[in-house]
Write a structure and sequence with these properties.
By secondary structure, this protein is an alpha/beta fold. It folds into 2 domains: about 1-45; about 55-360, Alkaline phosphatase D (PhoD) (Purple Acid Phosphatase, chain A, domain 2). Helices cover about 30% and strands about 25% of the residues. The protein contains 9 helices and 13 strands. It has helices at about 1-15, 20-45, 75-80, 100-110, 115-120, 130-135, 145-155, 215-230, 255-265; strands at about 55-65, 85-90, 125-130, 175-180, 180-190, 235-240, 275, 285-290, 295-300, 320-325, 330-335, 340-350, 350-360. It has a 7-stranded mixed beta sheet with strand order 4-5-6-7-9-8-10, with helices on one face. α4 runs parallel beside α7. The longest helix has 26 residues, at about 20-45. It is globular and about 55 Å long. The protein binds fe (ii) ion.
């Protein structure tokens, strides 16, 4: 608009230079009036046609892989985004211990970290663990302190004492959130407590085609959650990446049968699904499409404090820019009468957008 106004203004000055003062004044008035009308028409025309149909919007921030001994330099940016909730996707702390006093102390120090403490005051916090906060690097079902570790995690997250997730084995949870009239079903999967062992000769995980990631009880629960959900949006929080297959680190693809089951479960949903994952010290957005189905997006945000430098990691599902500096995720949901716009973002220091995709889904 600014550019257009200047163009007309220049033309106006040139035309008017030879005519009388009165005519000039009359013309000025007429031209100004025309300009005002023109500019207001154009302003209206510039708006997306659905702009007036916006019902509400919500912002959720998320992140993973947070080492207390490293600078906690992204919390101010997260605070500046004023999210309606923050979701931990694992490795909240680097516990790596069987000493529950050490684990509790590290969580407590995280809780007291000033900017994080401020975020807790400002917004709701949810989360699930990955390996380091569980207590063992790449740990699974054989970690001996898993029951005690779960209680410490739930204390840190302040999971309400009446929540039924306290009473079952494992740390999986779900929440029905209603944020500014947008309903979100948040499902947080536990991929450690029941997970079978993987073999890793020469530092490369071998596929395990018989073992489990979730365990049968959690599987049944997950299947029911997905099938029955009627929220505007389902968000699945997963410590481990779900879609990427090529890299050599921990991933759902290390359990091909389990990953195939996961994808089958996703197909039973009647609502759009967004997966949030962590763990990788690397950020990226992936999109998985199956014939006749809505695509499913996965936003991997890692790490809040120590992201690894560039690597040429292939991922056939990746869309947009891979992120190799410290990052957090921001999901901006805009609800319209007939659809949702989901702005999927990975952001860095100075509130800079490092990768962004917009997913428009019908309601
Ligand atoms: Fe991890």
């Amino acid at each position: 608009m600014k550019f257009m106004f200047n163009k007309i203004h220049v033309r106006f000055i040139t035309i008017q230079s030879t005519i009388s003062y009165h005519r000039k004044m009359k013309s000025i008035t007429l031209l100004l009036l025309s300009l005002i009308i023109l500019s207001s028409c154009n302003r209206r025309m510039d708006l997306p046609s659905h702009q007036n149909d916006v019902i509400s919007d919500a912002k959720l921030a998320f992140g993973s892989c947070n080492k207390l001994s490293k600078p906690q330099h992204l919390w101010d940016d997260i605070l500046a985004d004023s999210p309606d909730a923050f979701i931990w996707l694992g490795d909240i702390i680097y516990g790596d211990t069987e000493d529950m006093g050490v684990l509790r102390d590290k969580y407590q120090r995280q809780k007291s970290q000033p900017q994080y403490a401020q975020l807790r005051k400002q917004t709701s916090i949810y989360g699930i663990w990955d390996d380091h906060d569980y207590g063992k690097n790449d740990g699974g079902k054989s970690y001996p302190m898993k029951r005690e570790s779960k209680a410490i995690l739930f204390d840190f997250l302040e999971v309400p004492p009446q929540d039924q997730s306290w009473n079952r084995e494992g740390a999986y949870q779900d929440y029905k959130l209603n944020v500014h009239d947008i309903s979100i079903h948040l499902i947080l999967l536990d991929e450690r407590y029941f997970r079978d062992t993987l073999l890793r000769p020469d530092g490369i995980y071998q596929p395990n085609d018989t073992g489990t990631v979730l365990g049968e009880t959690q599987w049944k629960w997950f299947e029911e959650m997905i099938k029955s959900s009627t929220s505007d949006l389902i968000i699945i929080g997963s410590g481990t990446q779900v879609f990427p297959e090529e890299h050599r680190f921990e991933k759902w693809a290390n359990f091909p049968r389990e990953r195939a089951r996961f994808i089958q479960v996703l197909k039973t949903a009647s609502r759009p699904i967004l997966i949030l994952s962590g763990d990788r010290h690397f950020g990226e957005i992936s999109r998985f499409s199956a014939a006749g189905q809505l695509p499913v997006y996965e936003v991997t945000s890692s790490s809040l404090t120590h992201t690894y430098p560039t690597r040429n990691e292939p991922n056939k599902y990746r869309i947009g820019t891979p992120v190799t500096i410290d990052n957090y995720g921001l999901l901006h949901i805009v609800k319209y009468k007939d659809h949702l716009d989901l702005e999927l973002m990975l952001k860095g220091e100075g509130n800079r957008i490092l990768s962004k995709e917009i997913w428009s889904v019908p309601r």
